[in-house]
Amino acid sequence: MKLVITIVMTVLLGVLSSNTHAAVDSTTLNSSVINSNLNLNRTTTYLMKGFNYIRNNATITIPAGTVILGDFETKGTLIIERGSKIIADGKKDCPIIFTSEKPAGARATGDWGGIIVLGRAGINTSSGADSAEIEGFGPGLGPIYGGQPRIDNDNSGILRYVRIEFAGVNLTGTAGNEINSLTMGGVGSGTTIEHVQVSYGGDDGFEWFGGTVNCKYLISYKSLDDDFDCDNGFRGRVQFALSVKDKDIADVSQSNGWEIDNNNNSPSNYNSPRTSMTFSNVTMVGPFETPSTPVNALHQRGGHLRRNSLPKIYNSIVMGYRVGFRFDAAGVWNAATNDTIQVRNTILGGNLRTADTNAASSFSPTNWLQNGSFANTLLTSTSAVGLTNPYNIYPDPSTTNNWVPAGGSPALSGASFANPNLTGFDVVNFRGAFGATNWAEVWAQFNPKNYTLPTPTDFVVKAVPQALVGVTPAADCPIMFEALLVNGSCQVVGTSSGTMDPSTYQTTFCFDYTPNGSYSLVLRHKNSIETWSKLPYSFSSGAANNYDFTTAQNQAYGDNLKLVGGLWTLYTGDPNQDCVVDASDISALDNDAFNFVSGCVNTDLNGDGVVDASDISVAENNAFDFVSCFKPCP
To answer: 189: number of CA atoms within 13 Å, CB side?
Structure first.
């Protein structure tokens, strides 16, 4: 939490009208204390004013696609207190967006407060107490995080497919009372945090004050201060994370990728639990594309390891920093020597210095990093790392693949998960955040200053696979569809996924970014024949869109539906998704039935949790009838 001096000159007249994408609700989250469950509506835009507390074990549920605007004047902030939950469960094609109330072109760093999630997992404090006030509010004013009782598997809810843009403001006007884009205090391992992007934050991107929460697929883009700040006994695990610095944007306290402390207020603190988190598959892109790049002098290190912390970093990339890693003080030097700090299988590329210490020491961090058994790779330039276009950020890009390794990149191999500290991590071959697959596609936004907010648009489709009529699926195996909207030139203009309601056979798809037009509707299901609508549908953005395949055979192109129980249904029996039910599908079913395969698998056609003769019978009948796809496009 650092001093940020910002001069903002902007005209707020008409901000809401130019930034509004739906009806605006400025009362629900208006300096509110919420003591009972609150469900937001995705077709409403919320203007969040002042400090909003979710407390008394209440849950706030935010549907996929909801937009919440942080109020500039009142520093809109959402605080999830201990025992309460946030369920912000977005989707890849329908992320939840927290952003500035200002219109495109006027949004800026630190336009509103941020999101604070507090739990009961263990923390350390300089006094030894098991709970503390969260930073940012001033002495005696902050809500409490940590124990009483200590619950390391505490569950504060879900943040998934969520963007947090232009947050991180000083809440009280006093130095040190800034909050981060996403602040986590004592958050437990029962909490789900994955696919979360923070952009243009006015302090740290993500900060963990103790706790045990595990996170995946994080992005910190052009945050002012540190990207991943870990302290007060954070012991969670983070895999697949991207940090990108802007060469011109840095904090007066110095900006780093990681800033890691055992206790951020007590340099000599060895209290337990120690900060000993584990990161794997992180890409840290510092501001120096080349040594001659003009960079704000306050940009410093890819990782600042200090105050007796015990970090473990594996299979990562640290590139383009003034210093790759700083090892700060004897507690850190000794821990590295004793192998309780680890950096392994990591690429350090194009850093002006590979590593240093804060003072004269017999410990040589560069020699330590080059220990052959650590399998780190030192490269002299950022280009040698071989990412696609990592410095294509001036101006902000419209693409999301800049940080994916190009062909021949050393990042495509060299990872290792043999270390026992990596038990439970996803095992991959690549180092850094990305392999060949770009998990930032669709939901992430790297031009947040200028994009137009989406128009919430639901498309409700009634359809059911033939073998699932009357079936109530297991909770861990919902009936999922993918929907595509295809124009007259056979181009896909919109995609969405959704879960079928087994009582109504309806699936609601999110097409917030699809323009008005006449489109064919295409449905895909994991073991059904791809099915197209009979005629193009007149899609209207911002309006209610509906289509029903079940009422008549001619609702599908080529009349490609099967009558079951009075409903026209999708043909089932294509688990290999090659658009025909044939011997290859039956072979897959036979093999799985012979091996008594069960669970949520593509070959379980009728959803009873086991592959058996009843599934094979459905596929054999459809193969006998030469069932295949009918579609107007190749």
So the answer is: 12
pLDDT in tens, 426-464: 999 999 999 999 999 999 999 999 999 999 999 999 999
What CA–CA distance (Å, rounded) separates 124 from 271?
6
User: Tell me: the pLDDT tens digits for 97-114?
Assistant: 999 999 999 999 999 999
Structure tokens that stand for 275 in this block: 């900060």
What tokens appear for 586 in the block?
């039956």
- Whether 64 and 42 have beta carbons less than 8 Å apart is answered as yes
Shortest CA distance to 501 belongs to which of 471, 537, 476, 457?
471
Tens of pLDDT, residues 383-404: 999 999 999 999 999 999 999 9
Non-local (6+) Cβ contacts of 499 within 8 A are 478, 479, 480, 481, 507
Q: CB–CB of 171/136 below 8 Å?
A: yes
Q: E strands along 373-512, which residues?
A: 377-379, 458-462, 480-486, 492-499, 506-510
Cα–Cα distance, 198 to 45 (Å, whole number): 19
pTM score, two decimals?
0.93
C-alpha to C-alpha distances, 349 to 192, 233, 365, 454, nearest whole angstrom: 32, 30, 16, 38
pLDDT value at position 173?
73
Structure token pair of residue 405: 């390794």
Q: How far apart are CA 311 and CA 333, in angstroms?
A: 12
What distance in Å separates the CA atoms of residue 93 and residue 90, rounded to the nearest whole number?
Answer: 8
Alpha-carbon span 560 to 538, nearest angstrom? 21
Residues 318/257, Cβ–Cβ less than 8 Å: yes
Q: Which two tokens stand for residue 240?
A: 């697949």
- Percentage helix, strand, coil for the chain under 3-state DSSP, each rounded to 5: 10, 30, 60
CA distance between the termini of the chain:
56
The DSSP code for 39 is E
CA 345 – CA 411 distance, rounded (Å): 10
Enter the DSSP assignment of 103.
P
